[in-house]
């Protein structure tokens, strides 16, 4: 891991439009880093089909070793379910990476953009989602499957909630609230129906209150939140919740913001983080130079925020702010890719973002 201001960033291009959007993202990150005096070194590694062709599996040792050494990485889209399931990742390299590197928090900021024709034009919310346990039967048991059917008429689903996972996630969320400037953190739960599991989750936040006097905690039932959120969205800027609720609420927010076209996300742990756009491989336009790299670029900005949260290197936060600002300005100035109704190619959009970075005033570091 970097001890100085130089960070090592892994680049996993992935499949479909992955190589195009990750190349654009590296160009933008490199320019922002230059402008902010932030040292970034990029290390490319293979994942997905190209890795399988060269090394025989989707996530070869070479890639895992490179990622272990890196501070963080950006990952282009990989297929969802189309890979053969005969290697150690069982056809899900992204899930394997989340589990292996204990990337326990998923950060999903949702912002409305006019190009997406949003239902709520000024929507701006970030959902922090616990990423490792809960109601996901394929991954919540060490052996066996967390959903089963003892008789034809009875089906059971197990939800696993542990103190360890709640504690590390709650600390992450409190730190995120404290360093993000949005000091009110809504902890969304359903303790009324599931007092033991939800009680563990909520308790993990409450115990941290004295350590984070600047964070205002608000406990909120998931049903109350869901009905109030569309009308009173300005009150809810930052939400922390368990895995399944987070999955649903972040997609609900994306729907109100006009879809997942520009949706960024970060999977973060204590030692590593992985920036990933929400969209998939878009195989229909792969290799045509039409892919919109904005979601991965915005995910990379989240990665810079995470580096700042973890290391307190202010240049990383400055780079994040610059990138977010540059993407917004480029789109407002008319650099709009075809998926959003414009004509810009991947290269033209990337150039527009880089021009915005070049003309931006240097932010105080
Ligand atoms: P996967 O099976 O990998 O999830 P998918 O095609 O089912 O892929 P997406 O990749 O999200 O799902 O694509 C849905 C539609 O949105 C496709 O028509 C695709 O071309 C388009 N699309 C998705 N992401 C982008 C992008 N970054 N730029 C341009 N178009 C995109």
List the helices and strands and how they pair.
Layout: E1 6-12, H1 18-36, E2 39-45, H2 49-55, H3 61-69, E3 72-75, H4 93-100, E4 105-111, E5 124-130, E6 147-151, E7 154-157, H5 163-180, E8 184-189, H6 195-206, E9 216-221, H7 222-228, E10 238-241, H8 243-257, E11 264-268, E12 273-277, H9 294-311, H10 314-332, H11 346-359
Parallel strand pairs: 1-2, 1-3, 3-12, 5-10, 8-9, 8-10
Antiparallel strand pairs: 4-5, 4-11, 6-7, 11-12
Helix pairs in contact: 1-9, 1-10, 1-11, 5-6, 9-10, 10-11
Bound molecules: adenosine-5'-triphosphate.
Adenosine-5'-triphosphate is lined by residues 17, 21, 77, 79-80, 279-282, 284-285, 291-292, 295, 339.
Count of DSSP H/I helices:
11
* Shape estimate: globular
Q: Ends: how far apart?
A: 22 Å
- The order of strands across the largest sheet is 2-1-3-12-11-4-5-10-8-9
Low-confidence stretches: none
The strand count comes to 12
